[in-house]
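Can you please make up a whole protein chain along with its backbone structure tokens because I've never seen that pairing?
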Amino acid sequence: MKTSFLTILKKINPYGKLPTVIDRDVVFFEPSVVNEYLDERYPHPPLKPGSPAERAQMRLAVMRIEEEVYPLHYNLVRLKKKSEPAKKMRAYLESLDGYLANQVFFIGEQYTLADISLAPVLWRLESNGISTIDWPHLEAYMDRLFERPAFGRSLSEHEKMLRDSL
């Protein structure tokens, strides 16, 4: 009898969600926990700001992305009636565009875990019917994120096709 991936995943992660990392018999899950662990395990280049205040700001940004933006994206993808989730996502993106008018990355000049947390949602916007053409600061930010070699290497073939087909 074949064991499904989800069955195996639920044995190591009670939520049965990705990402899940196993390192030295210790299991880590939840995106922000996995990202911080990987940043500390492989610290070059650092993905957290240097000062305690900026690190706290980054953690707050990651928390808000996970609690607010991820559910917006989930609803945009999963719900049959997309008008309300799309409206909420556009409102978020409009406010983000204003915020990014004075930012290189989400937390100032340094690429951080906040950018890593937001990039997958931004990558999938067009394939979910959300155009960013009206938000020049957001588009410039997205270009900076997507041009990073590590971002390109992180994409699966399916994720590459999401944008190639548009």
